[in-house]
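Example noted here:
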Amino acid sequence: MTMLRSILQRLRDDERGWVAPMFVVLVPVLMLATGLVVDGAAKIQGNVHADQVAASAARAATAAVSGGAIRNGAMNLNGSAAYQAAMDYVNSSGFSGSAIVSGNEIRVEVWSDVETMFLGTSLPISGSATAALITQ
């Protein structure tokens, strides 16, 4: 009986400290997984926001119709005014961007960076949208 007790005691003593190596391995893995989820979500949200800014800038640009709409009822996009309206909206939103006016259509592209919490760097975000002046 005493031999069995001594074997059990030795086994119990051998298990002491086994949590420390597991803790050392699991904590960094869990931190990495958390960082990827949080920073990945920030990039996705940044891209969604960039798409929204681009769409809003394109819609704002379509409000710039030519003066001919008042005189003869022909609605055409005023290219320079549409470009300026889109870029004003993009710049006021804190993004960089570009706009291309083609006929009665404008395409706006925006880009920026989003700061990460865990990776310690920034990730690029971008968005684009097209709006057209519809006349009937």
Summary: The longest helix spans residues 19-61. The CA atoms of residues 38 and 117 lie 8 Å apart.
